Amino acid sequence: MSLLSRLFGRRDTVSWGEKKVEREAASLDILVSDPGAPAMEMARRPQVTPWSAARLGTIFMDFAHEPTPTRLAEARLARQCLSQFWLNAPIDALELLYGSMIGNCYRQMISTELASQPLLRDEEAWKDYLSQRLFSGFKRPEMANILLAVMPYFRRGKMTVRNCEQNLPAWLLEDYASLFEPEILPRLRQPSPLERKALAPAGHRAERIVAPETVGVPAGMDADLPPLPQLSGYTGAQALQFTTNEDFLTRLNGLVNLFEIDPDDDAILHELGGYRRQLGQIWLDTPDEQLQPLFESTFGDLYRKFLRSGYAGTPLSEEDRQIRTLLSRYVRNMTRPKAIQVVLAVLPFFPPGKIGFAGGEQYMPPWLLGALPSLYVKG
Fold it and tell me: What is the Cβ-side half-sphere exposure of residue 362, based on CA atoms within 13 angstroms?
């Protein structure tokens, strides 16, 4: 029996002279829910179009940085490629795939403004077809596949899944909410009892990082900190991939150089603001054991160049001021988990001379403590 026959539950036909004998396929799962429906047909000469998650990720990054007509066209094709991928992905491997590089690429896509672009006629038809399948009911096992395939075609806030917290898988819920129901994100991100226990202040209270905006915060507020803020749409493993992504590093290096040439260019200032948040998110997501190697890597060199450029001294937006305040409050007690990560994340939000340590240094590793005096000084 051929592999395709076994996979699709077909019968083998064997010729003996002029007689044909059909053998029933073994009792195997088939890919059609209705036994009377025809099995999946395979083309004799299938079209093979090679693609890679890394290539698609570069396409989405390029489009996010500069949405030219050519890059928009490439992003449309890349979106269609991912949409078809999720439709054909095995149901029992969706969570694993979503946590892999292909999932990172998908999240990179939905964080861009691609969905805000008017759909082409074929894209509109594709979206309508998937939408009809999706909203026919959420009890069918393939609904997560269809949801992943259709989400990138809806504008932010323009799609709603009834009872999403019950109908959507937990691994997809937060990304769905960030696009279509951001009002439920605070509840979704509320730490569990175990996480609240881990974030509780330790017995020893370290000295504070002092900033003008945080001096007047009552000490009692320190005892019940909210979860760390999310600084960027690229988080976790996706954020850490940027530390070795040549396009990301090259663009950031170029922006820093341009800023030093013309520190009043609004476009450069705006784009550097996005990179500052991404730098902070990278540090927040870096595991303890990777902090020193990352600080001493090419990425770490570029991080220090960013600090020395003077960009940290430019005026902050109100949102960035709130981010700085939240992060600063967290490291008032340097014994908290991830305190070192938070220090590295918050440094780009402070101008030179506006941050000081009064006792917390004893909890800092030597590789960071030794570097602090030179972080804002050009070499």
Answer: 9
Q: Where are the domains of the chain?
A: 53-187, 197-374
Q: How many CA atoms lie within 13 A of 151 on its CB side?
A: 27
User: Distance between CA 274 and CA 255 in Å, rounded?
Assistant: 11
Q: What is the pTM assigned to this prediction?
A: 0.46
The token duo for 48 is: 């093979």
* Residue the block writes with tokens 């989405």: 60
**In the predicted model, is pLDDT for residue 368 greater than 80?**
yes
Q: Answer whether 153's CB lies under 8 Å from 161's CB.
A: no
Question: Tens of pLDDT along 205-251?
Answer: 333 333 333 323 333 334 455 578 888 888 888 889 999 998 899 99
Instruction: Render 166-225 in DSSP notation, one character per residue.
Output: HHS-HHHHHHHHHHH-GGGHHHHTSPPHHHHHHHSPPSS-PPPEE-TTTTTS-GGGGGGP
Q: What is the DSSP letter of 297?
A: S
Task: Say whether pLDDT at 45 is over 80.
Answer: no
pLDDT computed for residue 10 by the predictor: 38
Burial 13-45 (b: 16+ CB within 10 A, else e): eeeeeeeeeeeebeeeeeeeeeeeeeeeeeeee
The confidence score (pLDDT) of residue 202 equals: 36
360 in Cβ contact with 208 (< 8 Å): yes
Question: Scanning the structure block, which residue is given the tokens 């928009």?
Answer: 72
The CB density around residue 87, as the number of other CB atoms within 10 Å, is 15
166-191: pLDDT as tens digits = 888 888 988 888 888 888 877 776 64
